[in-house]
Amino acid sequence: MARPLKPGQKAPASGQGEDGMINVNDVSEAIREELRDEIADLEEYAARGERPPHCRGYRIRVNRDRFVIHEANPTREMILETAGLTPVDQWSLRFVVRGCKPELIKPDERVDLRGPGVEKFKALPLDQTEGENVITASI
């Protein structure tokens, strides 16, 4: 339990205990999270059930094509532009987490590419449906 600070006493630095000692678990976690000079393939990490590391880029799949994006938390618009799907306001975008149904990404919403299980993206023109709630009439 943390004790209140005495007048003039400084709080321990982040990662240090009350005794001023550095927590080894915090240090090892920081080392593991160090920015890696690689491109992480989201589908590979999702298949292994692992969370992608902080790195210089992320290989994503939008529909059938693969792209590299250099932002860990891109917006919907950034993903669509990277995939060449412009104008972005004429496309819907969903992300697929391994084993789950695709989830709609709203305009200006960000996606955490380092989130566990993020596998791929599905984009559709707004004038097309995925077969949901489609009513057909026979003549």
Pick out the low-confidence regions: 134-139
Tell me the β content: 25-35%
Q: In angstroms, what separates the terminal alpha carbons?
A: 75 Å
Shape: elongated
Q: Give the spatial strand order of the biggest sheet.
A: 1-2-3
Residue share in helix: 10-25%
Over the alpha carbons, how many angstroms does the gyration radius reach? 22 Å
CATH topology of the domain at 38-125: Ubiquitin-like (UB roll)
Jot down its keywords.
139 residues, alpha+beta, Ubiquitin-like (UB roll), 3-stranded mixed sheet, 17% helix
Give a structural overview.
- Residues 134-139 have low confidence and may be disordered.
- The strands form 2 sheets. The chain has a 3-stranded mixed β-sheet.
- With 139 residues, the protein is α+β, with helices and mostly antiparallel strands.
- 15% of the residues are buried.
- It is elongated, with a radius of gyration of 22 Å.
- Helices cover 17% and strands 27% of the residues.
- The N and C termini lie far apart (75 Å).
